[in-house]
Amino acid sequence: MSGEVAVLGAGMHPWGKWGRGFVEYGVVAARAALADAGVDWRDVGSVVGADTVRAGYPGYVAGATFAKALGWQGARVTSVYAACASGAQAINAARAQILSGLADVVLVVGADAAPKGFFRPAGGDRPDDPDWLRFRVLGATNPTYFGLYARRRMAVHGDTLEDFAQVKVKNAALGALNPNARYRKRVTAEEVAGSAVVADPLRLLDICATSDGGAALVLSSMDFARRHGAADPVRIRAVSTVTPRYPNTVLDLPDIATDSAVAVEPSAGTFRASIARAAYEEAGIGPEDLSLAEVYDLSTALELQWYEDLGLCGEGEAAKLLREGATSLGGRIPVNVSGGLASFGEAVPAQAIAQVCELTWQLRGDAGDRQIASARVGITANQGLFGHGSSVVAVR
Amino acid sequence: MVAGWFAGDGDDFRLLGTRCSACASVFFPREDAFCRNPGCRGGELTEVPLSRRGRVWSYTDSRYRPPSPYVTDPELSWEPYALIAVELESERLVVLGQTVPGITVSDLAVGMEVEVVPGVLNEDEETTWTTWHWRPTGVTA
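Predict the joint structure of the above. Result:
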């Protein structure tokens, strides 16, 4: 199929709290991806960095920062910021360059050394910044929004705290099988229930941590892949990078209020659902074709929401799908077999790239103890602040 | 800090938004530059008070001290506050806000009616920063 690009290599720096700089994590991940691809760095025609947000410039100019650390070799360079969707947008930029003929081989890198505790806005008095305002005026942290979504699901769909805990139990068991995961210990429902409440009804073990980590991909044209001896590579078939449609009626990070639906009737389906729909349309597949999905489980309850938004089940049926074991390893549609953010934690510019690394390993059959039998089609889903929605479809 | 987001005292207290004269879209926080309806050619944006009452869309709380720029006194032990997302029926939009002091998540339910009242966000020796709070209707404390 035209419009596809090959995934020649995937690599990560293991996630954790290592106390080193993001450049180091990115370079380790990049070298691993290049080695995996069998491509010399000097043969890479373009490097795309997913930006991390740090005081001063280096984090904002990630593409050149990684290129310098790997050794200047004259490649085209791009830096991309889209909050949590930065990694997916970096992949999209690389893909667009390949499909337009601007580059044959592109290295995509994202890495972060995340601060401890809550994410917070940059300093200074900035009342024109919605992210600053929600902290200053309301003290509304990210888990505040996850708590709102969780409580809404309980009221509307009858989800229970036990359902949420089972998402963590599932993802922790899978993360225990993944050498790149930060948390490699199984967790019981009792341990989730015994952890401190952060934002009612969610507890510490319902919410993902912040982490250090890095992930990288080597992408190429299909022609280059064939010349390079990769006759049947994993291919990226779609990258959705959609914005919401007015009026967006689900309260979303970092906003204090939704749009008003008084003048324009909301379109069918939510913003989150439209992210996956765009990817399915571009890839020419549907949820019934999927072998696996990697979704942003920023909270346990949010993973359930993605089941419905990806069309894995009908609205309100996510907890049932989970209870049936359909989203576990060996189930009909395993979700977050990598262990998810529950096991990795957030390293913002790296995580959407890490999702595609997992699809790559699964579609190749290289995922070790967490391998899904005969995986052919995978999707990722993520969402960044300020209306960035992204989803990637990979096939074999 | 957030000029023109609310006004009035007691029962006259209201959140203030803006309304587009061309398409009637309502915005909160107020949008004074351009109408954000993609199908609107853009009209004059005029200030409009929002409904005093609405229904709880969802709610949560903050059991850990939020980071700066939220202002708290680190000398005092942390008292969690509840937050409610409130659906205003006539404007068909959802507004997030803290509850009045003393209301906890155990007092709340999705669908419950709440009303907007003036509140204090924080204060120091020179300044009191005011804000809006949501209070379940029928609660007068």
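The longest strand of chain B covers residues 113-123.
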